[in-house]
């Protein structure tokens, strides 16, 4: 007892535990009572179908139900994460004490026990500083595991108003949070959001909010917390309209996917850039193209090529229409067919044009009839459209074309060269066709996604299939119809059934992370999903993998148009130790002097290790073994694409202790991620094999939270800055 009193941390924890217990007890009560009300409501409906719950009961039922449902949902997530519902406390100059948490909880008298972190009353928790204390004397961060308080970190903001009894513990929550080892998933920062981050999080939703800043400045977490904030402050708009969060890769999404649920938000669609078009095409991809091919596929110069592609007739299409009417042969010849095609495509998308094409064919046939054909126009049309030869012709001559079927055609080098003449050089056209050779076997690459999306837009949705019996009549066997949409295509594009429907899903808010990598074609794809949305765009041009930064900028400016723009710059690197970031920034400024360099706040006293090995494969295993011993958390092995699989196999074969903490990634895949220890394998190859060159190496070098090791082959690499 005396011992507990003499230890200020223990007694302060006990005080906070009391309040946290109160909150959990209240939540338990509310959950039970909501279940009872819901149960009562259900039996009311069951016992008397004609009667309704009285309005006010209904509202209460709704409120409690929602409250308990939300609370139960959030608690399930929090328990799994071992993080607390209540994480902050403010002691104010007027003596008021406010607790801040992931959701707001009130007691029976409607007095707040905890304030939702997104509520205006919680703002001083994030904005108050010693120079502008906003009536806050002490800011306290509680560290909880589930409902148990396990730690406290205080910031004294206004010592003048602190009375003698106020206990201040720890050196501040931020440093404590930053020095903790990382797991394989990103954690929320709700307890330690910094003032400049808070401003971006709470900015109004309208127009475009652009958040920039160097590596590790919290752009991603800020974007995600902003999403949670927008849902809280404008729930009706954003929950019904939908929020889309786009990240660079599937690996990245796995890394961030817990952040929003831990903040109580689950109604958000997360998509990797490769899977954005999954609402309109069945197969999407995460494969990367090589640097040069990606540059061609991502460029706006692809647009005229795709436009030509959709109007280009298939090689095996019939060249002449012949039907027999009243014993007379009527013919529409190839020149006339071409004119009809041009005319219909001037007014219709290909997949919406068959009906108009049919009408034009009927008119052409009608005009060509000899005088022996003796019938009215209506009768003539009915007769001709009932002829198998006519229907078979129209399906073969005007097939419905799916986007993958169209894109696949560009794998033919001769066709690619012909259609690309002008916008692309012959060498670029060859890269394009070679880059589509694996489309059928391996599926699309990330860059193909935007091309497929553009094609869906140009072709229009594939119309519904004809009746089953007709399908087998016209689709089986005949080589003329080999390019029409296959049954597999049809089944795989279930959304493309209503020709009048907008094929793309649209959203009320779009968050684009790592936006510096978004190619112009991808911006077009994203814009279709957010035509009337507000946007948050997060990025750092110094980390761009896109070779033509100016073209990407132009594409973004075009999306923004005249909409209001708000800009925020994050200035502090919370991830990398100063020693690591110093090396990384020297590397990037040599090639990219305008890089926006943040200030690293933490120092570990350990310089990066620049190692050289005669044999890279054994070197990798040795260095990873050492790193596993030096850091508690994750170890990332960042490789050039050509060495990734080998490194993974060698590390698996070595069966190192702690192997579950290792992740092997390419420099491109390491975008947005972080590890406690990082080994960058052959940095010169990272530069040579990545579209962004030195900028991609900069990304790799800025992934560690603790230790950085680089490994050169044979001798010190050319990438090293002078003096390193
Ligand atoms: N206020 C904060 N409190 C605690 N940790 C923070 C804070 N801000 C950022 N961090 C941590 O810093 C690290 C980097 O954050 P994040 O990945 O969002 O940065 P980024 O700017 O997106 O980086 P990059 O551009 O390199 O991808 C994360 O571990 C994040 O949790």
Automatic annotation (TrEMBL):
Span of domain UvrD-like helicase ATP-binding: 192-577
A GO CC term attached to the entry: cytosol
Binding positions for ATP per the UniProt entry: 213-220
GO annotation (BP), single: recombinational repair
UniProt keywords, alphabetically: ATP-binding, Helicase, Hydrolase, Nucleotide-binding
Gene Ontology molecular functions: 3'-5' DNA helicase activity; ATP binding; DNA binding; hydrolase activity
PANTHER family in the record: DNA 3'-5' HELICASE, UVRD / RECB / PCRA DNA HELICASE FAMILY MEMBER
Protein name: DNA helicase IV
Organism of origin: Microlunatus flavus
Taxonomic lineage: Bacteria, Bacillati, Actinomycetota, Actinomycetes, Propionibacteriales
């Amino acid at each position: 007892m005396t011992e507990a009193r003499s230890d200020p941390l223990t007694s302060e924890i006990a005080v906070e535990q009391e309040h946290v217990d109160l909150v959990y007890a209240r939540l338990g009560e509310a959950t039970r009572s909501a279940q009872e009300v819901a149960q009562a409501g259900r039996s009311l409906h069951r016992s008397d179908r004609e009667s309704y719950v009285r309005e006010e009961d209904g509202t209460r039922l709704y409120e409690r139900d929602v409250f308990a449902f939300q609370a139960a949902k959030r608690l399930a997530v929090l328990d799994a994460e071992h993080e607390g519902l209540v994480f902050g406390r403010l002691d104010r100059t007027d003596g008021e004490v406010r607790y801040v948490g992931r959701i707001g909880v009130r007691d029976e008298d409607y007095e707040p026990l905890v304030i939702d972190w997104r509520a205006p009353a919680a703002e001083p928790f994030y904005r108050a500083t010693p120079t502008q204390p906003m009536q806050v004397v002490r800011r306290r961060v509680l560290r909880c595991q589930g409902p148990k308080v396990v730690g406290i970190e205080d910031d004294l903001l206004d010592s003048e108003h602190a009375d003698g009894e106020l206990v201040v513990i720890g050196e501040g929550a931020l440093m404590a949070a930053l020095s903790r080892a990382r797991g394989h998933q990103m954690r929320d920062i709700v307890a330690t959001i910094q003032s400049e981050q808070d401003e971006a999080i709470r900015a109004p939703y309208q127009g475009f909010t652009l958040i920039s800043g160097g590596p590790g400045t919290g752009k991603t977490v800020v974007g995600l917390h902003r999403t949670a904030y927008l849902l809280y402050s404008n729930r009706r708009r954003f929950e019904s309209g939908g929020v889309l969060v786009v990240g660079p890769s599937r690996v990245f999404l796995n890394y961030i996917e817990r952040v929003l649920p831990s903040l109580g938000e689950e109604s958000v669609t997360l998509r990797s850039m490769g899977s954005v078009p999954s609402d309109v095409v069945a197969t999407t991809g995460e494969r990367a193209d090589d640097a040069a091919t990606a540059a061609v596929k991502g460029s706006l110069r692809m647009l005229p090529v795709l436009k030509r592609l959709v109007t280009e007739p298939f090689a095996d299409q019939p060249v002449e229409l012949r039907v027999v009417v009243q014993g007379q042969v009527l013919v529409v010849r190839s020149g006339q067919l071409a004119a009809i095609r041009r005319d219909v495509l001037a007014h219709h998308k290909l997949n919406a044009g068959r009906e108009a094409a049919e009408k034009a064919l009927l008119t052409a046939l009608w005009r060509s009839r000899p005088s022996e054909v003796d019938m009215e126009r209506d009768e003539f049309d009915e007769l001709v459209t009932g002829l198998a030869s006519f229907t078979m012709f129209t399906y073969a001559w005007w097939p419905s074309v799916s986007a993958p079927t169209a894109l696949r055609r560009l794998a033919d080098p001769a066709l690619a060269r012909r259609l690309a003449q002008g916008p692309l050089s012959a060498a670029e056209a060859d890269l394009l066709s070679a880059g589509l050779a694996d489309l059928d076997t391996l599926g699309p690459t990330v860059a193909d996604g935007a091309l497929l999306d553009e094609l869906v837009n140009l072709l229009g949705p594939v119309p519904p299939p004809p009746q089953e019996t007709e399908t087998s009549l016209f689709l089986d066997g005949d080589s003329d119809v080999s390019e029409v949409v296959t049954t597999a295509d049809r089944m795989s594009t279930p959304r493309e059934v209503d020709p009048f429907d907008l094929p793309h899903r649209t959203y009320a808010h779009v968050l684009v992370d790592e936006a510096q990598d978004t190619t112009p074609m991808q911006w077009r794809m994203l814009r279709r999903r957010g035509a009337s949305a507000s946007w948050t765009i997060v990025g750092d041009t110094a980390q761009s993998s896109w070779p033509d930064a100016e073209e990407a900028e132009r594409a973004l400016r075009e999306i923004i148009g005249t909409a209001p723009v708000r800009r925020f710059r994050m200035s502090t690197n919370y991830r990398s130790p100063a020693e690591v970031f110093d090396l990384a920034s020297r590397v990037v400024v040599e090639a990219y002097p305008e890089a926006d360099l943040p200030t690293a706040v933490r120092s570990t006293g350990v310089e990066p290790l620049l190692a050289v090995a005669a044999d890279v494969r054994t070197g990798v295993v040795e260095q990873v073994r050492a790193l596993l011993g030096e850091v508690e958390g994750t170890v990332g092995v960042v490789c050039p694409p050509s060495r990734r699989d080998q490194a993974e196999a060698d590390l698996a074969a070595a069966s190192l202790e702690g192997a579950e903490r290792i992740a092997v990634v390419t420099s491109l895949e390491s975008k947005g991620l972080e590890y406690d220890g990082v080994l960058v394998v052959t940095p010169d190859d990272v530069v040579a094999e990545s579209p962004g060159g030195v900028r991609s190496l900069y990304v790799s070098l800025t992934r560690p939270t603790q230790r950085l090791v680089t490994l050169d082959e044979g001798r010190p690499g050319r990438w090293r800055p002078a003096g390193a």
